[in-house]
């Protein structure tokens, strides 16, 4: 039985890419050759001496429930067995600061015995917060230190402000930038916040010299365990997906393999359709970045087989939280709300993201399953939600004021007041951000050669009736929060 068989490889052009990688050698450790031995896993889930019934346990293929004695059993050829953390229990942590929810399986043994001991959470979880950080993507010691001293310090400040003992975080992929030795500093930063973190695999968290998609994930899995899994907190079910598919020849696409889709179906079969559902994945299922900026590869900027994912999610009100693109975008597609989160590294530690969004992260609250959120810019107050530009700062709109509302979605309102009166209407446009145009103009020094301003859909323009009027801009988010800023 071949565990690597996947319907994706039925596409003939991908076979060519695989053959091209045949002579490559990994740069991260020694690639392991594993036999396809099946092992019988027997285990138990307990808490303070009591056996826990109906706890979800999986190997990434099969999904089973513990019996009345807290016991489970399955036969597997997978590297990990993990639990879907039930609500009401505190998260155990690995030494690196991330959540410990898995056990490694020894495939050379005929039988593995596994124990999960859970600790009751003394705090009511029905109202809780979580933080989503995307693309720390540290490539140098200097960037890693900046992540610790700047980003993680801000996360610690946010933790204190939220004052929520149930707060957790999710690193939404590209934790490092191909430099796996920097996981040590990334982990150091995460531990310094005191926030338990789950991790998502990104395209820069894989070994691009590996011989297969499966073996490419080893730098990540050796640190954080399986690359897809689920857990619960309060009234919300959370899922981590791995949508980075390594093709060989240092190439990848956004793709969800059949094994993972089948596992997702089994996991969700145990979740009531009226339960709040939040899914984290690195590459967004869909992004407008290609439509707004022709020339980019849509297969790398979105999930090719996203319709299969959407089909599985039918009947759920689902929120998808992604990263990867280094910009901010909110997309509503019927029952699916996707939050494409801007990078906490900005444009690869060069400054703001290339759509003008400041470096930052998403802050979410689940109150009995009802989700609310805001974008937190690093080093700024929570009410910093937009930026205003005067006429003459954008060549395409020389006579207009311009506003960048980076966390905008269709329920937001952008109101303009002229001398205290709402006599001016703003117009949404697809445009680049003037500050990004200034910082990343051709010929200006920047860390990475590919950085350039990107057109986006959260820009607004307006023109006052009188150029000498006093201008105020008021932005109201979908939750009724008001943010106001004036210009004389």
UniProtKB/TrEMBL annotation:
Natural source organism: Aquiflexum gelatinilyticum
Residue span(s) of domain Calcineurin-like phosphoesterase C-terminal: 338-483
Coiled-coil ranges from the UniProt annotation: none
Alphabetical list of InterPro entries matching this protein: Calcineurin-like_PHP (IPR004843), Metallo-depent_PP-like (IPR029052), Metallophos_C (IPR032288), Metallophos_N (IPR032285), STPP_CPPED1 (IPR051918)
Top-level lineage group: Bacteria
Gene3D superfamilies: 3.60.21.10
SUPFAM superfamilies given in the database record: Metallo-dependent phosphatases (SSF56300)
PANTHER family: METALLOPHOSPHOESTERASE, CALCINEURIN SUPERFAMILY, SERINE_THREONINE-PROTEIN PHOSPHATASE CPPED1
UniProt keyword annotations, A-Z: Signal
Keyword Lyase appears in the UniProt entry: no
Domain Calcineurin-like phosphoesterase N-terminal: 43-118
Molecular function, one GO term: hydrolase activity
N-terminal signal peptide: 1-29
Protein name: Calcineurin-like phosphoesterase family protein
Domain Calcineurin-like phosphoesterase: from-to ranges: 131-327
